[in-house]
Amino acid sequence: MPYDPGDDVVVIHQPREGAASGTFRAFAATLKGLKMTFSRAVEGTTTIGYPEEKTPVYPRFRGRHKLHRFEDTGLEKCVGCSLCAAACPADCIRVVAAENTPENRVSAGERYAAVYEINLSRCIFCGYCEIACPFDAITLGHDYEMADYNRSDLIFTKEMLLAEPLERTPLRTPDE
Amino acid sequence: MSAPLYAEIGYFEPWWMQIAKALAIFLVVFNMVPMALLADRKLLGRFQHRYGPTRVGPFGLLQAVADIGKLLFKQQFVPRDSRKWLFIAAPIISMVTAAATLAIIPFSDTVDIFGVKTGLYGVDPSIGILFAFAFGGIAFYGLMLGGWSSNSKYSFLGSMRAAAQLISYEIAQGLSIIGVIMMVGSLSLVDIVTWQEQNVWLFIPQFVGWLVFLVAGFAETNRPPFDLAEGEAELVGGYFTEYSGGRFAAFFAAEYLNMVVVSLLFTTIFFGGWDVPFWDQPNWIEPIVVLAKMWVFIFFFIWVRATLPRLRYDQLMSFGWKILLPLATLNALVTAVLVVVLD
Amino acid sequence: MPRPVVKEITFTLDGREITAPEGMILVDAAGKYGDTEIPVFCYEPKLGQPVGACRMCLVEIEGIPKLQTGCSTPIRDGMVVHTQTQRVHDAQRAVVEFLLINHPLDCPVCDKGGECPLQDITYGWGPGTSRFIEPKRHFKKPLELSPLIAIDRERCILCYRCVRYSQEVAEDYQLVLQQRGAASYVSTFDGHPYVAPFSGNIIELCPVGALTSRAYRFRARPWDIEGAGTVCAGCTAQCNVELTVRDERVLRVLSRDHSEVDDGWLCDKGRFSYQAVHAEERITQPLVREGAELHPASWEKAIEAAAAALKKAGDRAAALAGGTTTNEEAFLLSGLLRDKLGSSHLATGVGGEQPLDVVRALADPKLQATVPDLEFAHTVLLVDCDPIDEAPVWDLRIRKGVRRHGTKLVVASARPTALDQNAAATLRFAPGGAEGFLVALDAALSGDAGNLGGAASAAGTNATAIQEFADALRAGGEEVVIVYGDRALRGSAGRALLNIASRLNLANVANAGLLELPSTPNGRGLREVGFAAGHGPGFSTISAPGHGAEAIASGLASGDLHTVWLHHVDPLRNYPNRPAWEKALGTAQTVIAVESQLTDTVREYADVVFPAEAYPEKEGTITHPDGRVQRLRQAIGHPRAASDVPGSGVRALWQVISDVARELGHSAGTAIAGAVVSKRVFEAVPFYNGMTLDGIGGRGLRWQEHATFEVEQSDPFVLAVPASLPAKGESELRLGTFRPLWAHKDVDLSPALQFIRAKQVVELSKADADARGIGEGDRVEIGNGTRIPGTARIRAAIPAGSVFVAEGIAEHNANVLTHGIVEVHRVGPGSTDATSIPIQSTPAVEGRAEMPPSAGLPIPPREVT
């Protein structure tokens, strides 16, 4: 039994080649197409001229990472537990922990991150590190402008991640 | 003894005027190439809600200059297994043939310059349009040799396509002009324009002929939707796959120069050349009128490029042979009958 | 002693019929045969009897109204067990909730996080939430339990594993559980640091993060690291280890449980001396002496220099190998010297060479005991060796046998051993009297009263004692394992040992035999691949036997030998008679040394120095004393030189020897890959035939189980009475030496082990000490002409007239004393500086006269923060 498409399928009839009406339809379709493109040209552009104008990001946009300190004591929140490295699906976080001493107290816990590196050229900005962090020490910020000339410059160290990031990206207002 | 040579045009031009004219026409029209290039990119952008190039110069106006500069400074690579001198000659042939047709385009009737009676055109040979077709035929060698001498299968396929396409559409194009020639009674482009000045723009009585000439003109210039010779989706770059740097630029410029020339032919043959209807225009404005009309057609070329998808090769062939050729023939026959009957 | 007989029974587990050996603990049977995991914390079969302390393993057994602990219930035929009922689940959740009440849940900062049984079981069987909102128990944390171990008492779940280990396995009786109830905590009884040779094992035993390694503290998390299985080449025991590697650095050494080798334990030397691998002091590029100074050189230059020296020396070249030398390196080096240069002056041991027939007879597969035999034999005889110092895990093995299987231990040695208090009989002979003792024991066993008396007095003891000892040896049963050190094999000692073996009929009794304790880790392998003066690969006869170690020294000193290759050997430190070696190396034309640090030998005498690989960098095979060929697998890359130029750093030693052979035009001795050399070794040694690296794999292959080695059987040898020991004056003492566990260059370079570095101690008897007015800890000098300083230690078990000093140590080494008779003088009172007092490795209660020696390091526990 041949398949009957019924009403579900709209059959598009091709112009029959050679027939006068087919030729006319093809001609008319061409004109229709020309009208379509011309009207697009009249509408103007929708390009955002990126370096001069920037798209505002949403508050939950996942951009460059930030490490945080406690506001009262100035100690780093990160205790170097490496859970972010474990959660990272791109394997771009490297943590080497060390022990706090009374003379050199860096974080609030027993240990701190002596080395904390994120390879941003590998990072996929999934935010799992932020979710994994038991101390809210790492969050993803709004900065997405991280292009550089060397791959090695994209390995961000702890100092770079702890530094106040440049707020280069406009934030979307609530009603936007 | 020299008088008979010029007898046909009925006046004498000194040698320096010939050279000055040639230089002026070539330089003015050749400068349209980068402008057409830029217009292509800017307009394509607009058709797609984009800006097109904006970075080089104000509004990106110097983009074409930058492109040309870049191409000229790139390495001119010659494949090891290519036919070297043919490989080098091919883009030159393309350029020269494209430019040569400019010689017969009339920008105005004869005018007085420094007391010298001068026709504002390179030459006005009695064979007129045939001259254009002749160089169109030679232009095919540029493509063919470029593709063949590269010794690359993509280039070769591209040049084969180009050859077949040019031959197919040249016939339709030539036949479509027959009606015009019959109505005007002359092959000279100056005569054709003058006829239109006195009667009516030829696209009205020769509407079908114009349509066929228009479509065939697209095909002859390898512009979309007939750019199968490039076919970057399947042939990398067609006949100029192996070309780079200045030679590539020559092919590229030849394509746009062809577009300019064909636009000028449209203008001259079907749209009254320098004529502005219902106005006795001064002589000095006539070249500007020609260029303005030409730009309308260039815009149309770009517009079509933004609109129509590339044809399949069999569609291209069947369209050329089964539709355009009969249509042009029919047009010629009907015109012939009408010309005899109305006379 | 017969191994336990296994009888299969069937029981029902969660509705399935499971067949398992009778008497197996339910937890093990469910896991191994029933594919059902019953969670446990305190249960660890290696620790002996279960205690049922954690209650995690509760299961329901039909017929018993209350839930039972699966870890203490042996399975019986027809038993019906349920592990998945609601009652069991409720109980498991309740137990986890209770355990977590006082657990601080500081997993992010805890080193155990990620590899923690408590985490795993909480995720798998726990309730997920806690109803406990009251304050938790708090202790000061973390404390130093010892310089190697940090204890966090808040995390402890009181499973008793560490305490049971200390009490029942290591038998040092130091760890106890103090206080009661929630206030309980683990510590040593008197609060002193827990210093013992096997203390590191409690780190691995702890199911939570309460006991963690100080050296590994915060170095890595489980997902940062890779495990690399290899074999520890630090001593003869060749324990199987798994190295924890992060970023091409060894960060930790864990045990890779192999019941045929190490029973899952490691000594602290093997566990912590890995730090020497990454020490700053390591030599990482070749050095060549120019003028008086050693200068870094390119490999090409060093290889050229070594080859030129060897070529010049020809058959006057000699080589010594020891340490972590692999079979492959020994094979290539001995082939180079023997086949190319025509020299068989190859020595490995510090002892003298035994005749070839004795060497062959001692290698008879029928006479070989295995390590498990130490545990299950009727009687174990130790002849002049102390496993705690030379193969530490054997000490635990023998203790296990005595404690759990009733193995009878008899000890005959000059110096009291750590196992004395477990021994059924002990015999003390005079230092250097091992040969006399063996001849006397042979005589006693054969009833040759004539030899017995003479040999006994030559050993510095008497016939009655020997006879009683022989009776004790015979009384236990027919399965006897004799453990002997190769330094005891002097003169006719080897023949005497063979006689004893034949008189005890060891060749025809299963699970009995001889077990050698070679003086270098791969002593057996070196011998078997032909690195010996008297025989080729597989004990084959050679045409021109060479010199042993002592003869090489005198040959070099007299100019008969020109060049010596020291492969992982430091004769000035590890060989007896340092003055003779100083003279020998000073006279030698060229000394080529393969060494990892600037030792005295290298600094003063070496002309060409090749950087030595550490064992985690090595690839090859080594042979366990019981004949098990084991594989060393490369765990980390070779270190680069300071210049960081690729290829300039440490290279594989088989490659170095191969390059030297190529330079010498000895194409048969070159190889393009380590595996090629291994293959050649397996082909060259008859009883290694058919072995492959894959076949050896991670567990090793005992060649005696796959190949035969025919030895001519001979009648018992007729032995002469050895020369009696030199007479000593009234005020003089006989000098004996011992090599402490910690006398190892890797210990010297490991920061974590600095506190326990071997220092010179002078061990003497109470009577001798009293006669000289020496008290415990006094500073004394010992010597006869040459004197060395040391700290006096009075040991009740040392017989009067003998004194023991440590050899193989970095400073004040005993090998400068060349006389067997010495005098001891008191030079001053003991230092009050705690760090100058040597720590004793002797682990346990020695006799009843001495206190547990846990007070070695008078540092009170302090906070680590």
From TrEMBL, chain A:
SUPFAM superfamilies: 4Fe-4S ferredoxins (SSF54862)
Coiled coil, from the record: none
Ranges of residues in domain 4Fe-4S ferredoxin-type: 66-98, 114-143
E.C. no: 7.1.1.-
Annotated residues for binding of [4Fe-4S] cluster 1: C78, C81, C84, C133
Reactions the enzyme catalyzes: a quinone + NADH + 5 H(+)(in) = a quinol + NAD(+) + 4 H(+)(out)
Binding site for [4Fe-4S] cluster 2: C88, C123, C126, C129
NCBIfam families associated with the record: NuoI, PRK05888.1-3
Oligomeric and partner information: NDH-1 is composed of 14 different subunits. Subunits NuoA, H, J, K, L, M, N constitute the membrane sector of the complex.
Family listed: Belongs to the complex I 23 kDa subunit family.
Stated name of the protein: NADH-quinone oxidoreductase subunit I
Gene: nuoI
UniProtKB/TrEMBL annotation, chain B:
Membrane topology: Multi-pass membrane protein
Catalysis performed (reactions): a quinone + NADH + 5 H(+)(in) = a quinol + NAD(+) + 4 H(+)(out)
EC numbers on record: 7.1.1.-
Signal sequence extent: none
Family membership noted in the UniProt record: Belongs to the complex I subunit 1 family.
Subunit organization: NDH-1 is composed of 14 different subunits. Subunits NuoA, H, J, K, L, M, N constitute the membrane sector of the complex.
Physiological role: NDH-1 shuttles electrons from NADH, via FMN and iron-sulfur (Fe-S) centers, to quinones in the respiratory chain. The immediate electron acceptor for the enzyme in this species is believed to be ubiquinone. Couples the redox reaction to proton translocation (for every two electrons transferred, four hydrogen ions are translocated across the cytoplasmic membrane), and thus conserves the redox energy in a proton gradient. This subunit may bind ubiquinone.
Protein name stated in the entry: NADH-quinone oxidoreductase subunit H
Organism per entry: Solirubrobacter deserti
Gene that encodes it: nuoH
UniProtKB/TrEMBL annotation, chain C:
Cofactors named for this entry: [2Fe-2S] cluster; [4Fe-4S] cluster
Domain 2Fe-2S ferredoxin-type positions: 7-87
Provenance organism: Solirubrobacter deserti
Limits of the 4Fe-4S His(Cys)3-ligated-type domain: 87-126
Keywords: 2Fe-2S, 4Fe-4S, Iron, Iron-sulfur, Metal-binding, NAD, Quinone, Translocase
Record keyword Membrane present: no
Role this protein plays: NDH-1 shuttles electrons from NADH, via FMN and iron-sulfur (Fe-S) centers, to quinones in the respiratory chain. Couples the redox reaction to proton translocation (for every two electrons transferred, four hydrogen ions are translocated across the cytoplasmic membrane), and thus conserves the redox energy in a proton gradient.
Record's cofactor remark: Binds 1 [2Fe-2S] cluster per subunit.
Keyword Iron-sulfur appears in the UniProt entry: yes
NCBIfam families associated with the record: NuoG
Gene3D superfamilies: 2.40.40.20, 3.10.20.740, 3.30.70.20, 3.40.50.740, ADC-like domains, Dimethylsulfoxide Reductase, domain 2
Domain spans labelled 4Fe-4S Mo/W bis-MGD-type: 225-281
Protein name: NADH-quinone oxidoreductase
Enzyme Commission code: 7.1.1.-
Chain segments carrying region Disordered: 828-865
InterPro entries from the UniProt entry: 2Fe-2S_ferredoxin-like_sf (IPR036010), 2Fe-2S_ferredoxin-type (IPR001041), Asp_de-COase-like_dom_sf (IPR009010), MoPterin_dinucl-bd_dom (IPR006657), Mopterin_OxRdtase (IPR006656), Mopterin_OxRdtase_4Fe-4S_dom (IPR006963), NADH_UbQ_OxRdtase_75kDa_su_CS (IPR000283), NADH_UbQ_OxRdtase_ferredoxin (IPR054351)
Similarity-based family: Belongs to the complex I 75 kDa subunit family.
Polar residues bias locations: 832-843
